[in-house]
Amino acid sequence: MGTRFGPSRLLYMMMLPSPTNNRAALQSTVLLLFFALVSVGPGSADLVANARERLEAGTAAEQRGEYIVAVQRYREALELNPNYTDAFHGLARSFFRLAEYEQALEAVREARRRARANTTIAALEGDILLLLGRLNEAAEAYNRVLAIEPNNLPARTGLAELSVAEGRTATAIDTYRTILSLAPENRPAILSLAVLYDERGDTAAAERYLALALEFHPRDPFVHELLSRYYLRSGRYGQARSHAETAVALSPGFARGWDLLTRTELADENYEAAVDASERLISLTPDSSRAFYLLGLAYERLDRFDESLDAYDRALRIAPDDEIARYALESTVTRGYDLEDPVREEVARYRFQRAASLIQQNQLIQAHAEFRRGLMLNPFDRDGRFQFAQLQRQLGFDGKLLAELQVLEQLGFDDNEIREAIELYEYLRRPSIATTWNVDQFSIERERLNFSMFYTHDHGADSRPSSGRFVAEYLRHRLLGSELIEIEELPVRISTPEQAFEQARASGTEYFIILTFREEDRTVDLSVDVLHSATGTRVRQIRVSRTGSGAVPRAGAAVADRIEAMVPTRGRLLERRGREALVSIGRADGVSEEDELIVIRSSRLASSVADVGFRYDPSDRIGTITVTALDDLLATGRLQREGFFDLFAIGDTVLLNADDQVRTIEDRPAFSPLYWRIREIR
């Protein structure tokens, strides 16, 4: 055990006068100092050396792109030296690369507290604040740097990106030009100007800057990668392929180059070449679910469904929460395998198990969606459908419960449990509106609002080919769970809104949806425009951004909820007995007792151009119905005419009072797709 006194304290003691033998005292003191230096000095040196060793290991891991390893090494360095500024700085950089911005901010502020004058650390703090959406604080951080170093390029670049985030592209262009006046070969500034001019539609200016980047950096694989992405976005696949091939020739281990080459081959329908490129990508990144996703997509396009499923399955083994890969796998199953194929049973099992887990968490609406998806994959699953039937009762829909049990009986499942359940619920539902009026509520033609659905796709660095299609198909399936919405056709990919308008108008639907999906840094953005099919007028916009585990289904569910909430509750007058009326909407449509329904003359409604809904001449309103009793898809109520004459007729339209309709609040993402295109360049 070492002495409690440090070397400086012992030197001080040596200088004190000794009342006795001075020579002996001096010898004792020198010996004491020697042992203190042995016990304290070398140990401290070892700690410093070990901390530096951990720091260097963290830096090496960071340079290899192994950010999780880097975080661990930097933390080990900080355990040895809690005041190690460089370790805090490295930790902040690594968390930033992992898109863990809150932790990055905590680490960078620890670093800045120890090195106030370090402008590199201060500029990184600005970058982190920007991606946290704290734009004013980010601007303050960058300006603090520029107050010390007026020509600091990272801070000026940060201010340019901040301008893009705020939609001030002209200011961003001016800032990037200033950067080029200070550093004419600055690659991020040159490429960012190319992207900004491309966004403005100034192709000539965009390509001038791309040529400039190539002139200054002809052997930079990142420059060729961006050029390839530029040409891929514009559909110039030959040039996109050429630059992607150059990127991987310059750097054979450049995974992003192989990723881009795979995407280019997929877009150009060279599927065998896409298989080859994705297999090379897998050899470089064997733990990448994205790489196996691309391989699965290439095999699917070749109709090699077994190999496609195997690739998607491997992607999901690596990343079980990758919903895009799961949607792709499920899409392949529905497209490539018969309803009786055992593969469907295996794939559907995941959805049924997830639904059961959600029920235990009392998340019944989400469980309902999972059961529907499982039954889409395997409609003959006895246990899955039986559990789905039981869920209907928990949701308050006894009629739907009985209907699902009867479907099981029709499928040939007539075991005692099902027979007894049918007998029980038939007894419990006597009397019901359906039995009292002798109406099969599940065979009545429903009054649904008809939509067409289209999707676009953004070629962001993290966006995967066909992900827009899979998300659109998921959203369609989710919306079809509503009793008020019809989307007859599968979503169609478009290049321009005009294409969607032309097809929607020809289809005769009332409204159409254009969906744009984007993945970036563990964040997904869903942008949905709802437009009037006859005129092309945009009536609603929805913007949803979600981050973290389950981001895709959570974003999709949020969009579906907003669209469902837009749609007015509409039904028909089915029968009347004196002043009592039977209508074709009920509890499942959101109708409650004492609600007021408006009755409109039959065939007098037109779709609204101002909003999702209907317009009619006030003179066609003939009365109201006050709801007195409910079934799942039926309601009864008291008729009240408007005017002297009773003009009610079977088939008249009924609407839930518009004042009771839920309206949506838009949820907009923090950043536009243009911002992410600029951000990719870094």
Which keywords apply here?
682 residues, alpha+beta, Serine Threonine Protein Phosphatase 5, Tetratricopeptide repeat, Rossmann fold, 28 helices, elongated
Strand content: 5-15%
Largest sheet: 6 strands, mixed
- Amino-to-carboxy terminus distance: 52 Å
Helix-and-strand structural type: alpha+beta
**Number of DSSP strand runs:** 14
Relative helix content: 55-70%
The total of helices stands at 28
CATH fold name of the domain at 449-567 and 665-675, please?
A: Rossmann fold
Low-confidence stretches: 1-42, 659-669
Gross CATH architecture of the domain at 449-567 and 665-675: 3-Layer(aba) Sandwich
Mean pLDDT equals: 88
Q: Any idea of the CATH class of the domain at 449-567 and 665-675?
A: Alpha Beta
Task: Identify the overall geometry.
Answer: elongated
* C-alpha Rg (nearest Å): 33 Å
Would you kindly provide a written description of the structure presented here, covering whatever features stand out?
The protein is of the alpha+beta class. Among the domains are: 1-116, Tetratricopeptide repeat domain (Serine Threonine Protein Phosphatase 5, Tetratricopeptide repeat); 342-430, Serine Threonine Protein Phosphatase 5, Tetratricopeptide repeat (Alpha Horseshoe), CATH 1.25.40.10; 449-567 and 665-675, Rossmann fold (3-Layer(aba) Sandwich); 570-660, Beta Barrel (Thrombin, subunit H). It is built from 28 helices and 14 strands. Strands 1, 2, 3, 4, 5 and 6 form a 6-stranded mixed sheet that branches. It has a 6-stranded antiparallel β-barrel with strand order 7-8-13-12-9-14. Helix 17 packs antiparallel against helix 18 (323-336). The longest helix is centred in the N-terminal third of the chain and has 42 residues, at 22-63. The two termini are 52 Å apart.
